[in-house]
Structures are given as structure tokens and as C-alpha cells.
Amino acid sequence: MNNFDYKNETHIIFGRGTQSRVGELTKEQADKVLLHYGTGSIKRSGLYDEVIASLNEAGVEFVELSGVLPNPRVSLVRKGIEICRRENIRFILAVGGGSVIDSAKAIAMGVDSEDDIWDIFLQGKPTLEALKLGTILTLPATGSESSVNTVISNDEDERKVGYGAPPLRPVFSILNPELFFTLPKEQLTYGASDMMSHIFERYFTNTVNTDLTDALCEGALRTIMKNALILRDDFNNYDAWAEIGFSGYVAHKGLLGLGRDEDWACHAIEHELSAIYDVPHGAGLSVVTPSWMKYVMKENLPIFVQFAVKVMGVDGSFREQEKIALEGIRKLEEFYKAMGLPTTFKELGIEEDKIELMAKKATRIAFGQERQLGKLKKLSWQDVLKIYEGCCK
Ligand code: NZQ
Ligand code: ZN
To answer: Nearest residue CA, atom 18 of ligand 1?
Structure first.
């Protein structure tokens, strides 16, 4: 097990009706806030009215900025930065899914910075201070409600770039599983795929002596698959949403990666799909992940065998380890298909003639730099190309 230094101070308020506390929680932080949200789902569900009532009751003044798109754009972030500067706002309340929360985080880090916000993303300059933010999560998937990360897209150069810094961790997040009932069905599947990937990025490691986090990862993965299948057939099942919401938070709060090297190749490989084709993140991940697994599994067969047996329920008595590992991956693909998730580029409408460019962008060769992706196996652009080729089958 590796050394670690861990602090996650996001106050989580979980359960039925908890959105009514947003005014009181926000008032503890600020008298005036930016209320940031997406393209209308919170108005249709009635959540917007509840939030406004709670803020009014607590005496919190607010300025609104709506319109965050899935794969949130830097252009709106710039607008939010201007509003906060002009209105002297020091706290952001994000109501929505990962895109809204990520957009809020990017605004929070840009307000006091002299640098252009996109340059900060591209250059990875450290952020030591940012405005604080709180969230009401309406879509369990990204874990952004308690993560230090934000992922922003720029239409101008077709890039999607992730960034992380401790001041971006929300001070509070409200998670009420009832708010998930209004989600379009496909968002359940994308969310399950994303939170599973956040666990895979930590689980598939060369670090040894990680019994506790191995077991936590395996339990969380089984919980997500079991409850996602329940929700597929019974969408308004509160208890299943509660398990999914709790798992999505645990998957990306930092806990499951403690003491182990993390990988993150699949996320970087997926971001190129979202950047060029605007595909939902979870749908890109269900295509990329099995191909990545098949490509790298020989680097550490025991962890793929462990996954097959302990998570996917493969019979461990097979004599050939490779067959067990492959059967685990096949069963994962079977789960994705059962949920209606794509497993090939064809289903996402991605053309084969773009994959070399995507491999070079993911590894930054296309920008005159070079980075290898991943940790379990370090991937060059040629490796990434092979993984993309595996998605074409
Ligand atoms: O625009 P609105 O009205 O908000 O509608 C959204 C959007 O159309 C809708 N929605 C959300 N909650 C709803 C709802 N519709 C009805 N009822 C509700 N309760 O769902 C659509 C998708 O929302 P979005 O926020 O884009 O989805 P998600 O939460 O999956 O976020 C995806 C983004 O997060 C990034 C992804 O790359 C992607 O850009 N990620 C962020 C991470 C982080 N910050 O830690 C980690 C992840 O790995 C991920 O990369
Ligand atoms: Zn993700």
C-alpha cells in the first residue's frame, strides 16, 4: 500500500426532502450567490421553485446563470466569471448534474485569476484559491459533488480538458434520490457506466497489499450493477436510486484510490470522443473500457482475474487465467448491453478515419507535446490507436 494524505470535507446531506435545506446551508456561506443550472430540467421538475423558495426564506440574494450544456463549454464559464466579478459574488450554488457542477467549479477558479480560464486548463497551472461552491445533485454519475475535478470543453479547438485542485471541492452537496426520478432513462445507464469507470480507474492497479480498497471497490461495483438493473425495470425505486446515488459519491470522493496508484487512461481516451463527437461521457466509457481491458490485461493478469471472479461472478476454477480474465470482460460487456449502453464506435457514430487524430490528441502529440496515458500500462499514441481500433470491431 502507498502512503496517502487525504482530506475530503464536503458536507453531504443525503435523503428525501433534503433540498429544503439549501437556503440555510447557503446562508452559512454567503448572503449573495450565483445560482448556476442547466437547460431547464430543474424548472420542469419543480426543483427550481423549491430552491428559490428556500433561498428567499433564508434571505439569500442570488443572480442566475442558466444554460450549461452537457460537456460544459468554456464560453459560458467566461460569462459566469464576468458576472461574479461584476456582482461581487463569492459563492456559487450549482443545481444539476456533473456538467453544471463542473461549470461552477471552473467559474469559481477563474474569478480571482489574472489568467484566461482556458489557459489554466491547458497548462494545468495550480489553483490555490477559488470561490466556494455548494451543490444540489440531480444526476448521480460523475461524483463531481465531492470531487476536486472539473472537465470543460471548448468548441473552438474541439478539446475537452480535465483539471483538479483541492479548493474546488464543494463545501456541501445535497443528494436526494427522489430528484433522480425525472431523469431520462439513458442517463441512468450513462451514470452507472461513469461511476463504474471511476472505480475501475482505481481498482486496476499494479499496487499490491490493497485488500481493503480492493474489497470496497468490488462491493461498490456489484452494488451499482445490481441496482442499475433494478432501476432499468423499476425506474421510480427510491431504494435502488439511494444505492446508486451513494455509490456514485463513494466512487469518486477519493476514498477508493487511497494507498494505490490510479490509472485514468480510459477517461483521457474517452474525452477525445466527447470533444469531437459530443457523445455522453458514460456512453464513451462503455465503448472504450472493454477494449482497454483487453489491450492491457496481460500486464497484470491477477487483478483482471480477481475482477472476473469477485465482481463479475466468473467461475474461478478455469485452469487458464487469461480465459477467466476474458470471461470477466465479456460479462461486463454483457452488462453494458443489458443496460442499453453502446460497446462499439459504430453505435456512437464515430468514424474510423478520425481515430489516429484522436489518439494523437489524447497523448498531446497533436499539440507538439507528449504524454503517456495510464499507469497499469503506460500508453503511447500507438497504444491508444490500438485501443480505438478495438472499439471499431
Ligand atoms: O441541462 P439540464 O436541464 O440540467 O439537463 C441535464 C442534461 O441534459 C439532464 N438532467 C440532469 N439531471 C436531471 C436531468 N434531466 C431530468 N431530471 C434530472 N434530475 O441530464 C443531462 C446530462 O447532464 P450532465 O450534467 O451533462 O451529465 P453528467 O452528470 O453525467 O455530467 C457529465 C459531465 O461531467 C464530466 C463529464 O466528462 C461530462 O462533461 N465529468 C466530471 C467529473 C468530475 N468533475 O469529477 C468526473 C467524470 O469523470 C466526468 O468526466
Ligand atoms: Zn467519469
So the answer is: 183
User: Separation of 196 CA from ligand 2 center, angstroms?
Assistant: 9
Phi, psi (degrees; rounded to nearest 5) at 172:
-145, 155
Give the Å distance between the CA of 181 and the centre of ligand 1: 15
**Residue 228 and residue 302 in one domain:** yes
Specify whether 155 is located in the same domain as 198.
no
Same domain, 174 and 228: no
| pTM, full prediction | 0.96
Q: What is the pLDDT of residues 83-123, one digit of tens each?
A: 999 999 999 999 999 999 999 999 999 999 999 999 999 99
| Domain-ending residue, one of 137, 161, 179 | 179
Kindly identify the ligand whose nearest atom is closest to the C-alpha of 190: 1
Q: Within this chain, do residues 249 and 359 fall inside the same structural domain, yes or no?
A: yes
Which of 136, 166, 134, 174 lies closest to 148, judged by CA?
166
The answer to whether position 305 is within a domain reads yes
172-175 β-sheet, strand order: 11-14, 172-175, 132-137, 91-96, 32-37, 61-65
Domain enclosing residue 275, as ranges: 185-391
Residue 282, classed as helix, strand or coil, is: helix
> In this structure, is residue 286 part of a structural domain?
yes
- 272-326 tens-digit pLDDT: 998 899 999 999 999 999 999 999 999 999 999 999 999 999 998 778 999 999 9
Q: Is 71 in the pocket of ligand 1 (CB under 6 A)?
A: yes
pLDDT digits (tens, 9 = 90+) for 178-206: 999 999 999 999 999 999 999 999 999 99
Note whether 142 and 225 are same-domain residues: no
- For ligand 1, whether the C-beta of 46 sits within 6 Å is no
Which residues, listed in sequence order, are joined to residue 163 by a DSSP beta bridge?
150
Task: Tell me, using a 6 A CB cutoff, whether residue 154 lines ligand 1.
Answer: no
Element (H, E) at 173: strand 172-175
Instruction: State the total domains in the chain.
Output: 2
From the CA of 197, the nearest ligand is 2
Atom 14 in ligand 1: residue holding the nearest Cα: 183
